[in-house]
Amino acid sequence: MIINSLLDTDLYKFTMMQCVLHQFPGAQVEYKFKCRNEGTDLQAVLPEIREEIENLCTLQFKPEELEYLSKLRFIKSDFVDFLELFRLNKARIEAYPAAGSKTDIEIRIKGPWLHTIMFEIPVLAIVGECYYQKFYPVPDLEEGRRRLAEKIQLIKDLPNGSPGLTISEYGTRRRFSKAWQLEVIRTLREQLGNKFVGTSNVYFAMTEGLTPLGTMAHEYLQACQALGPRLRDSQTYAFEMWAKEYRGDLGIALSDVFGMKAFLSDFDMYFCKLFDGARHDSGDPYIWGEKIIEHYRRNRCDPRTKSLIFSDMLDIPKVISLYNRFHNKINLGFGIGTNLVNDLGYSALQNVIKLVRCNGQPVAKLSDSPSKSMCEDESYLKYLREVFELDECQEAKA
């Protein structure tokens, strides 16, 4: 089995799931898979993907896993009790050849949000590893180790140790394999010491004694487009419900569901003071950082008390460049995914699973990088652009 633990996923799946349990237990959702690499032959591994999904749906949380979760300061006891009974239902997910294509596949996930939210990350890991197992059955691990060593050396060579520059591993969904991800994590921990601060993967955080990292993902803010009182206030509503659930903990806000302009409009003085910082996941990171810092200043917040988390397609040279630009202005964090756990010399798959409907209503992500946007309803997109006064260039790709 590629996935043999339900902890083998990102922390923000648990933090969002707990919020769903307490705030939105009746929400119904639909997710859609998309491979951004044109012409990738995933139909060749569709039988293996289906078999691995069936295996995934047999898993339950083990007592030691529940005990680990219960010790995380923000996890509540009733949520752990719920997880003790939790299983993924294979009736909620379908994987099949895409119509009119000899290579593409469709994956659809439908059902109660509370019972489907855990599919995304392990299914993406399954699709990727099935593909790599078939087309690269004897991976060039030595090349991967050489590339990883070069990245580590770039950090070790930084002048005066560059205090405040730390990295974390965010790559479960895009990893080459689970075994390679583990080797990368262990190498980073051994070679970088306190400059490697943790992983988004809860299983490896538990087994390797690391800090699990994460707060919210796009799907949370997307779902609030349907769950809130009105669309224009959906982002504000999402932040308010998050604060209701976590009371100031897990205070990193995601900024790019409607783009930067809409985020800054909604992220007012109250949220500037309440949340610890914001996460960048699309668009120009330098422009984004400067705008956020200026926004804090306008809202009477000292940026040096806040944090910026960068997580969009990072590599070590970009991390160093961003650190040099911002380190004396604000606290920084860097989450690196694909470039750490899927850099063996092969083209990495850019697979995503995104929320497309909630309670029967279309929802959308309108990213600051249009190629990362996603929606299936053109009329809803038009309405969304009008409501948030968005530029026409921010069109989502179905």
TrEMBL record:
Glycosyltransferase is among the record's keywords: yes
UniProt protein name: Nicotinate phosphoribosyltransferase
Catalysis performed (reactions): 5-phospho-alpha-D-ribose 1-diphosphate + nicotinate + ATP + H2O = nicotinate beta-D-ribonucleotide + ADP + phosphate + diphosphate
Organism: Turicimonas muris
Function: Catalyzes the synthesis of beta-nicotinate D-ribonucleotide from nicotinate and 5-phospho-D-ribose 1-phosphate at the expense of ATP.
Tagged with keyword Cytoplasm: no
Broad EC category: ligase
UniProt KW keywords: Glycosyltransferase, Ligase, Phosphoprotein, Pyridine nucleotide biosynthesis, Transferase
Pfam name, any one: NAPRTase
Family of this protein: Belongs to the NAPRTase family.
Domain Nicotinate/nicotinamide phosphoribosyltransferase: residue ranges: 167-391
Taxonomic placement: Bacteria, Pseudomonadati, Pseudomonadota, Betaproteobacteria, Burkholderiales
GO BP annotation list: NAD+ biosynthetic process via the salvage pathway
Encoding gene, per UniProt annotation: pncB
